[in-house]
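hey m, so remember when u said the C-alpha cells were messed up on ur end? i reran from scratch. heres the input so u can diff it against urs
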Amino acid sequence: MSPKRTIILGGARSGKSSFAERLAVHYGKSRVYIATAQALDDEMRSRIERHISRRGAGWRTVEAPLDVASTVAKAAAGEVLLLDCATLWLSNHLLAGTDLSAATDGLLSALRACPADVIVVSNEVGFGIVPDTPLGRQFRDAQGRLNQHLAEWAVLAVLVVAGLPLVLKGTLPRDMS
C-alpha cells in the first residue's frame, strides 16, 4: 500500500492544524511533528506552547524552520509526518533570501520520495485582496504555486473552514468527516 499523502488547507484560525493532528492520530502510527514556526517573540512562543499542549503525548517534534526536506528524507515507512506549516516554511525562506524555486523543488522531491504517510498544513492565501507591497505579492504568488504543487502531489486534499473539513480531492476516513 502506498503512503498517504495529504494537504490540509485553510485560512488563519480555520482549525486546519487541529484537524491535521486528529488525522495523524487516526493513522495510528509513530507521529513526527515537523515544526516550521520560530519563537522570535513572546506571542509566538505562547502560540507554540499552546500547539504543543494541545497535541499532548505521543509526538516527536523536529524543529525545521528551513530544512524540512532533510527531515522528510529521514522518515521511515512506519511513521506519519505532520508538517505544520508550509506557509511559515515558505515565509522563512522568503525572509532569508533563499532561492524559493530551489527550496520548493527540494521539498517536493523529498515529499515524492518519502515512504512515510505525510500530512502538510498550508494556508490558503488567495481568498483575500491583492497585497499592496511587492514582498506581499511575491509571497502570495509563491504560496499559491506551492499549494498547487502540494495539491497535485496529494492523494487527499482538504480545505478546513470554521473547523469543518471540505474534501477537495480523495476521500476522508469515515470517522473523520
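this time it looks ok to me. The two ends are 22 Å apart (CA to CA). if urs says something different then somethings off w ur setup not the seq
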